[in-house]
Amino acid sequence: MKITTIGLDLAKNVFQVHGVNEHGKAVLRKQLRRDQVAAFFANLPACLVGIEACASAHHWARKLQSMGHTVKLMAPQFVKPYVKSNKNDAADAEAICEAVSRPSMRFVPIKNIEQQAVLALHRARQGFVKARTAQANQIRGLLGEYGLIVPQGIHYIADRVPALIEDAAVELPGAFRLLISRLLDHLKVLHQQVDEIEAQIKAWHRANDASRRLEKVPGIGPLTASALVATVGDAKNFDNGRQFAAWLGLVPRQHSSGGKANLLGMSKRGDAYLRTMLIHGARSVIFRSTQRADTESWLFKLTTRRNKNIAAVALANKTARTIWALLVHDREFRPGYAAA
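The structure corresponding to this sequence follows.
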């Protein structure tokens, strides 16, 4: 019984294994507890292991690779079509085993521990930013119940609310003043957490050559550059810049039939965090270009004939292709570069 391909369905406690031989015949169906997985694969001859790219997938991929196995990660939406009927762990493992053997399957690059650590900082910062925004909105809403309106913008909370709750002329109960003061202290703590995590991200950015190269691209700052480098890893996994932009969801969706091409809005596939940062960076570049009013530039001509939201996505797509070229060819960004 020689096992050539294995589908491993990950879980919190109980893992499912499905193995086939060189003829594609199922020769192994086994359920393992978490503490049995490492020992099982350590005693198994080297083979191809397919795993869905989900929680802890990169950890297990690195661990199985260290044992000599070839590990491939796949997006769950690409595995789903291979589930025959009802969903269960055994059917999922069989579908993974089938999907990983397809020659046209697209795989997810395996991240190392440093990349995961940087992305964890980004996710934590994003969570603190959301909590900070929610806290500011709660303060604004509570004050609005007493007829005290604070302008939009998070900086107005710290600038105006302390003076409002200390003003004796404003009719507010003492308990409510103490509550707002407590919420302001919490807002300051959240703001401090965001600043400290940003400092850690920028320190990693300054120590990484690829991240520093990407920062020179218009619309790319330390946060976007570090997130791109940590997420992409080896850009050579993509055949060209368009494939990289499609991976980020910055290309049109297609619903074509009968030889008639029908392009829709952007696909919004891939990493929403990276896509959002690229589009926000593109909006900043568009704003600066309208101030300079360079009538001969590609971007100025685009904004005059199309909506600025469409122009922002188009520029983000162009920026993504530039990023791919810089990472693949290990080059510095040159603003006036023209292809031969």
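Residues 211 and 229 are 6 Å apart (CA to CA).
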